[in-house]
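Hey, resending since the last one bounced:
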Amino acid sequence: MDLTSKEAPLLRLGEALRACGYEFTTPTPATHTRVNARAQNREAKDLRDVFGWTRPFSRDVLPADIVALMRDAGILLKENGLLRSALRVSSLGGELFFHSAFPTTEADAVFFGPDSYRFARAIKAVLSERTAPIANAVDIGCGAGPGGIFVAKHAPEARVLMTDINESALRLARVNAALAGTTKATALRSDILSEVDGAFDLIVSNPPYLNDALQRAYRHGGGDFGASLSLRILEATLPRLAPDGSLILYTGAAIVSGRDLFREAALPRLAEGDFAWTYEEVDPDVFGEELETEAYRAADRIAAVVLNVRKRN
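The structure tokens again:
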């Protein structure tokens, strides 16, 4: 895919970081805050501090060519006499992914974190067992694109669409796909599948699943407990699965008085067609800090769950 004048230097920056052997595993926002609060972490000392931990840095910390590429890409910010990167870079499955800097407070922030790693594992588990070929696939709400890119690396001949309503996400997904060498992965704007035609052999999605007071696009799933978007995706995708097609929906479920509200709402929808499915809690307790908010005053916990659906032939 063709990259813009701002995206091309971002691709070159990613290639330069890869050549340096750069790696960074992104933790939860709570962990990120705690680690950056340590006195010794006030300023960046190396590449990981700059592009992983989003710490301010002096110009002599980075090689001149890296700073020049950051400037050309429009991600070099000035902050209290120091410099700062407007983007982070994380590693997953041998690839590098650009995403929003910490903290992700912007309405159009592009999130990447522990959910991204669990999402990738869920996709890997399904692909390891799938024997049918994948010709058409889509990653709904692609964000930085890890789901779609992971699929495209597994099935290099497949047409893989990466859809989102966030233009910032689509921009980074394009760069990340180019960086990964997945030439058949295409990023395009679509509200779920509204702008996309046809049936799919594989649909993957890791949508926002919280009830976010600020209604930030990358966090807010809508409804009392954030499940509305996930249910919309389920309703939209089940009719669009090709025979033997699979849906991998990684999302969150509020557990209220011992009841999994997302699972209860999903069951009637799954009963409407000829589907085989599994449902698993892959982490029983995520975003525990949300339980202190008004929206989750009645919740026991929030679980990370994976719903795998297969349309029978």
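The chain has a mean pLDDT of 96.

Sorry for the duplicate.
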